[in-house]
Design a protein that fits this description.
Blueprint (H helix, E strand, L loop, with lengths): L4 E2 L20 H15 L3 E3 L9 E5 L14 E12 L3 E6 L9 E6 L1 E7 L5 E7 H14 L10 H6 L1 H8 L9 E2 L1
Parallel strand pairs: 1-9
Antiparallel strand pairs: 2-3, 3-4, 4-7, 5-6, 7-8
Length: 182
């Protein structure tokens, strides 16, 4: 099943998400459907709130960068109940976009490296360090389960400059090449 992507302006994107347990209904199917939805929308990450579910689950697919960076050629991961507990002081600026904010791209400053605890799709525990593009995508998706979007990281001046675009998007004025809902 391909889920419609929830668009900016929906309260779902602003709610904090809840932890889940292994008995979450049809979890394997949900994760499979999220992979299908992500592929259809041609994204690199998808969080459950973006498909209307306020649960602490997201997926990351860095394989589109695999040609330039062979370490990312098979980089696909599921994150359940994640917790970022350490961030590097070193930061970098990178242009981000979001399936929930179609057509909007802005430079966002984030830590280069993070440490995180999470469960995978088999509910096995992990404690890992992530750096570079995976760290960037993970932080972006992590924001979604915390009720944030990437524009929250912009300076007040920059947010003010894109305010009209965001308001129009929230009212339904946007274009996306994938299924959406407000």
């Amino acid at each position: 099943m391909i889920y419609p992507i929830v668009i900016y302006g929906s309260q779902i994107l602003r709610n904090e998400s809840e932890d889940i347990t292994p008995d979450y209904p049809e979890l394997k199917k949900l994760i499979d459907d999220m992979w299908t939805t992500l592929a259809e929308a041609e994204g690199v990450g998808l969080a459950a709130p973006q498909i209307g579910k306020n649960i602490r689950l997201f997926i990351v697919d860095c394989t589109p960068w695999g040609e330039d960076d062979p370490t990312l050629a098979d980089y696909r991961k599921v994150f359940i109940n994640p917790e970022i507990y350490e961030e590097s002081e070193e930061t970098s600026l990178f242009e981000e976009g979001c399936l929930s904010l179609p057509g909007l791209h802005e430079n966002v400053r984030r830590p280069v490296t993070i440490r995180m605890r999470y469960l995978d799709e088999n509910f096995e525990e992990h404690d890992e360090e992530f750096t570079g593009k995976p760290a960037r995508v993970i932080q972006h998706e992590y924001d979604h389960i915390e009720g944030m979007v990437f524009t929250d990281h912009l300076s007040p001046l920059r947010r003010n400059l894109i305010k009209n675009k965001l308001q129009k998007m929230a009212r339904g004025s946007y274009r996306a090449a994938y299924k959406t809902k407000r």
